[in-house]
Specification:
Helix 5 crosses helix 6, helix 10 crosses helix 11 (281-289) and helix 13 runs antiparallel to helix 14 (323-337). This protein has a single domain (42-165, 221-354), classed as 3-Layer(aba) Sandwich (Rossmann fold). The chain is α/β, with parallel strands linked by helices and 367 residues long. The strands form three sheets. Strands 2, 3, 4, 5, 10, 14, 15 and 16 form an eight-stranded mixed sheet that branches. Strands 1, 6, 7, 8 and 9 form a five-stranded antiparallel sheet that branches. The protein has a three-stranded antiparallel sheet with strand order 12-11-13. Helices cover 34% and strands 23% of the residues. The structure holds S-adenosyl-L-homocysteine. Residues 32-33, 40, 46, 54, 56-57, 89-91, 95, 118-121, 124, 158-160, 163 line the site of S-adenosyl-L-homocysteine. S-adenosyl-L-homocysteine (SAH) binds next to helix 2 and helix 4.
Length: 367
């Protein structure tokens, strides 16, 4: 019965009835950013009783190390005035708060910074305003990176790219067919394949995937964010992107739904659960390079945090807190650096995309 469905599911069913099954990417886009019913438009996923937790919310050390990195890269850029410090998807603003506090040790950095936040969620924008306004720095919001005036920039994004929609295609004997969301005969939303293969799709794939067996799944994103980042940083800028993802291209699907810190079915409760898919860092880097930017990494989050001194930072913090707190600090370091599916140390990668003039960057030097 239609009334059992979420408002967004009713809308998605209406669109499918009018226009036919929709690509998975369109489904993901509507689920996350539909202007009325999108998950990010209506939820604070990181707040009390939220759906998931991110690295800056686990520990202040994460944002602090990023702050030190940003200030040091700003110095390498020649310490430009009016540098646009851009965060894509700042969540609760925690990373910027910790980063700017830590970067105070670098003279002139705070005074040079104008904050530009790209945020789709009115709810999170309010949280960001409440928390960041007291810093007294110029602070502006934008719907998209494209809207920010050009100029020297430092861009940061943690768990932002994984929220951008992915397409999926499945190899069949007659070519690759895009995966779509359809209404199944039992009246549930279900994954189906577009009737016609994607024209010339095989030729656009990385060489190593061109002879994949039937049934293989390939996932990809629009390269528009990567191209825009590359274009902005190639002359006087740097971007630091951290996300769940793989360093090299590959087959398989990674689209997943999370609600209340547990996995759930991406096709159930559209607009009520978070959807993400891993970042293909090879594709991201190649797109940014094609605009004339340089790539550093990707490397595992664990290695990057260690090289920037997370262990030393933890020792300093622990020296000033009671024992209970010191155990929490150890647990945070472990969560941010641990291998396997429970930790973020290996699953999360860090890549920098920069002006080619920049020399080895903190955390990306060859060991
Ligand atoms: N970086 C934060 C939040 C990650 S959650 C942290 O690490 O805690 C993803 C963030 O990206 C949220 O702030 C969400 O509202 C924002 N977001 C997701 N898709 C977006 C889009 N298409 N445009 C702008 N912001 C988006």
């Amino acid at each position: 019965m239609a009334d059992e469905h979420s408002p967004l599911e009713r809308e998605i069913r209406r669109l499918i009835r009018i226009a036919g099954p929709m690509p998975v990417s369109e489904y993901m886009r509507l689920c996350l950013t539909h202007p009325q019913y999108g998950y990010y438009v209506n939820h604070d996923p990181l707040g009390a009783g939220g759906d998931f937790i991110t690295a800056p919310e686990i520990s202040q050390m994460f944002g602090e190390l990023i702050g030190v990195w940003l200030a040091s890269v700003w110095q390498q850029l020649g310490g430009p005035e009016n540098v646009r410090l851009i965060e894509l998807g700042p969540g609760r603003g925690t990373m910027l708060l910790d980063a700017l506090r830590a970067a105070k040790t670098v003279p002139g950095f705070q005074a040079a910074v104008v904050l530009h936040l790209v945020e789709v969620s009115p709810a999170l924008q309010k949280v960001q305003e409440r928390r960041l306004q007291p810093l007294g720095l110029p602070l502006l919001w934008h719907a998209a990176l494209e809207d920010i005036p050009p100029g020297p920039c430092l861009i940061v994004a943690n768990e932002f790219i994984d929220a951008l929609p992915v397409h999926q295609a499945v190899k069949q004997t007659d070519g690759w067919h895009e995966r779509v969301v359809a209404i199944a005969p039992d009246d549930t939303l279900a994954i189906a394949l577009a009737a016609d293969p994607l024209p010339h799709f095989e030729a656009t794939l990385p060489r190593g995937l061109r002879l994949s067996p039937d049934g293989s799944i390939y996932e990809w994103r629009s390269d528009s964010a990567a191209l825009e980042i590359g274009r902005r940083v190639r002359n006087g800028g740097a971007a630091l992107i951290i996300d769940y993802g793989h360093a090299w291209y590959g087959l398989g699907e990674t689209l997943q739904a999370v609600s209340g810190h547990a996995f759930t079915d991406p096709l159930r409760s559209p607009g009520e659960v978070d959807l993400t898919a891993h970042v293909d860092f090879e594709a991201l880097g190649q797109s940014a390079e094609s605009m004339g930017a340089s790539i550093h990494g990707p490397i595992a989050q664990r290695d990057w945090l260690r090289r920037l001194g997370i262990d030393k930072r933890a020792e300093v913090l622990k020296a000033h807190v009671p024992y209970g707190k010191s155990v929490e600090i150890d647990q945070a370091v472990s969560r941010l650096t641990a291998s396997g599916t429970k930790g973020m140390g290996e699953l999360c990668k860090v890549i920098a995309i920069t002006d080619p003039k920049l020399k080895p960057l903190p955390g990306f030097e060859m060991p």
